[in-house]
């Protein structure tokens, strides 16, 4: 795999160019704003803890957990995550993109994914 990457002319042409990376103040914005394929809740930063039977809402930025709370209700966890995004992520994205923060949270519409148990 590594050999195939090194031999790809498009990849080789981009290697070593700093301009291809946005300045994001040391924050991986993609990880904080894009839904991973392994996400089962449908909302970034919200997960279900089977042991406690509660929903966790988390936001990790610049090596610190800015939000780490548990909720009985899924919707409360989503609201807490969106509020943390408004408070911490939107100002960062606005500084990076040189635009004003928007009124809608980054993940405005939670999408519940089917679990294996509910699919059968």
From TrEMBL:
Could you tell me what this protein is called? AP2/ERF domain-containing protein
């Amino acid at each position: 795999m590594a050999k195939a990457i090194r031999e790809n002319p498009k990849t080789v042409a981009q290697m070593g160019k700093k301009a291809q990376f946005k300045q994001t103040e040391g924050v991986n914005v993609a990880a904080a704003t894009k839904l991973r394929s392994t996400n089962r809740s449908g909302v970034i930063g919200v997960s279900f803890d089977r042991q406690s039977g509660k929903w966790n809402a988390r936001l990790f930025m610049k090596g610190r957990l800015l939000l780490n709370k548990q909720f009985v209700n899924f919707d409360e966890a989503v609201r807490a995550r969106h509020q943390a995004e408004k408070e911490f992520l939107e100002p960062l994205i606005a500084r990076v993109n040189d635009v004003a923060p928007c009124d809608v949270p980054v993940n405005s519409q939670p999408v519940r994914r089917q679990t294996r148990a509910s699919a059968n």
